[in-house]
Amino acid sequence: MSTTHANHDHQHGADCGHTAVEHNGHTDYLHDGHLHHQQQDGQVVEHVLEVSDANPSACTPDHKCGGHDVNHVHGPGCGHEAVPHGDHVDYLVDGHLHHPHGDHCDNHGPVNVIA
Predict the structure, then answer these.
(1) Which of 15, 19, 27, 68 is the most exposed place for a label (fewest CB within 10 A)?
(2) Could you report the per-residue pLDDT of 37-90, keeping only the tens digit for each?
(3) What would the DSSP string read from start to end of 61-91?
(4) Can you tell me the distance from the alpha carbon of 42 to that of 37, in angstroms, rounded to the nearest whole number?
């Protein structure tokens, strides 16, 4: 489901300062915990990364990642960008989604960051 982001004056594009990611054959931008798609008509549409085979929402308690210390806690201001994924929020760490879950982070799959 997509909704229009009202009153969004920022124009997303190359070198706009936000992380660009590939999503369903187009480019979206991570902006303050949102996944924004800049339309040609100037409107910004809110997208959500779908739960899929590539980006599951399963528990993966054995996931080991060197992207942060084992005691790191994901949340606002943690240093990792928030990514809306299905009905929850994940965090972008070394090109894949981390979902905080109890005493570990689940791996919710890769994200193609556009350089």
Answers:
(1) 15
(2) 888 787 888 999 999 999 999 999 999 888 888 889 999 999 999 999 999 999
(3) TT---TTS-TT---STTSSSEEEEETTEEEE
(4) 10
d(CA 80, CA 113): 14
| Dihedral class, residue 87 (left if φ above 0, else alpha if ψ from -120 to 50, else beta) | alpha
SS3 of 100, please?
A: strand
Which residue has 């989604």 as its token pair? 97
Instruction: Identify the H or E element spanning 99.
Output: strand 96-101
As a whole number of angstroms, the distance between CA 79 and CA 68 comes to: 10
The answer to whether the beta carbons of residues 28 and 21 sit under 8 Å apart is yes
> How far apart are alpha carbons 66 and 55 in whole angstroms?
20
d(CA 91, CA 97) in angstroms, rounded, equals 5
Return the number of other C-beta atoms located less than 10 Å from residue 27's C-beta: 16
Owner of token pair 């300062």: 17
Q: Is 30 helix (H, G, I), strand (E, B) or coil?
A: strand
- Residue 36 is given by DSSP the state E
